[in-house]
Write a structure and sequence with these properties.
binds zinc ion; 10 helices; 2 domains; five-stranded mixed β-sheet; about 325 residues; Nucleotidyltransferase, domain 5
């Protein structure tokens, strides 16, 4: 056991709420996948243990040992150095400092491990295998707890000096709403699921009627997950519709401005909310973005991420595809 090398690669998408692992073939086919909740207590070692378990589970489903994989890629939040030390992943428990994630996972799995940025690997997955395939230049926008962005320009990933793509912190209202980053008026302050939940709570406490929190409890959640927003919208909940509309307008302003700057051929919308709300909401965002386009007779194509929830894990596996 453990000596037959395969052409399969592992990928792990490390998110603030879930860890998605997958074992992926050379053409992006998923052979096994497993999901685990991201620990909310403890520290990086506990998160790494869950990651290793989820990857091992995916490998078992694919009929291989982790050690037989070409390697295991990880899409992580925060900053990763070339040695795979991850720093400042502040939405993960006790991860304000640095942790040698690649080395620890490599020891646990017996496989090589590489770390990339979570949003950038998901953008590359869409570019190489998903909705971005027909294009040379794309902007990936990931609408979830926060709002992340990734870019491929003229066929190549653009990461700037390491931190490009932060479309969530482009300013859409000067002196506007407070963002989780501490600044004001960022896109994320209006469209991030975190700030949207905070705003919903504030309105609810002020007496605005909404079914959002009832739906949350009925479904056994303690946060307003994407599915909760979806059900509230289906119920015609006015507060949910108001806050989603506010997010759609904010996304339109952010995306329109980014397109004015970059003139990409296509915008791909992913993330928990982006994928769950899907096509009808993408069209609403597109309509809002159109209002801000300087060259408005040639708008970019807009697509929902084709790889859906698995895009991050598939993209992470591509760290071993070069
Ligand atoms: Zn911000």
């Amino acid at each position: 056991m453990g000596s037959t090398k395969t052409k399969l690669r592992g990928g792990i998408d490390l998110g603030g709420t879930k860890i998605q692992a997958a074992v992926v073939g050379p053409r992006g086919k998923v052979h096994g996948e497993e999901r685990a909740a991201t620990p909310t207590e403890g520290g990086p070692a506990d998160v790494a243990r869950e990651m290793a378990a989820a990857l091992s589970g995916s490998a078992r489903k694919a009929g291989v040992e982790p050690a037989d994989l070409v390697g295991v890629g990880v899409g992580a939040p925060g900053d990763a150095d070339p040695q795979g030390v991850v720093s400042g992943a502040s939405n993960l428990p006790g991860w304000e400092g640095s942790y040698p994630l690649a080395a620890e996972l490599s020891t646990a799995l017996g496989a090589d491990v590489r770390i990339g940025g979570d949003v950038q690997v998901a953008t590359e997955a869409e570019f190489r295998l998903g909705a971005g395939k027909p294009y040379r230049s794309i902007l990936g926008v990931f609408w979830g707890t926060g709002v992340g962005g990734g870019m491929i320009l003229d066929g190549k990933p653009w990461t700037g000096r390491g931190n490009a793509g932060e479309i969530g912190h482009t300013v859409i209202v000067r002196g506007g709403a407070r963002c989780p980053c501490g600044r004001r008026g960022c896109l994320e302050a209006y469209a991030g699921r975190g700030p949207m939940e905070a705003k919903a709570r504030e309105e609810h406490e002020k007496g605005t009627k909404t079914r959002l929190f009832k739906i949350m409890k009925e479904r056994g959640h303690d946060r307003l997950k994407s599915s909760v927003w979806e059900h509230a919208l289906e119920d015609g909940d006015e507060l949910a519709e108001h806050l989603i509309d506010r997010a759609v307008k904010a996304l339109g302003a952010g995306i329109g401005s980014a397109v004015n700057l970059l003139d990409v051929e296509a915008v791909i919308l992913g993330g928990g909310l982006g994928v769950r709300l899907g096509e009808p909401f993408l069209r609403r965002i597109e309509k809002q973005a159109a209002k801000h386009l300087f060259v408005d007779d040639r708008p970019p194509a807009m697509h929902v991420a084709a790889l859906g929830d698995l895009g991050g894990a598939i993209g992470a596996s591509l760290l071993f595809a070069r």
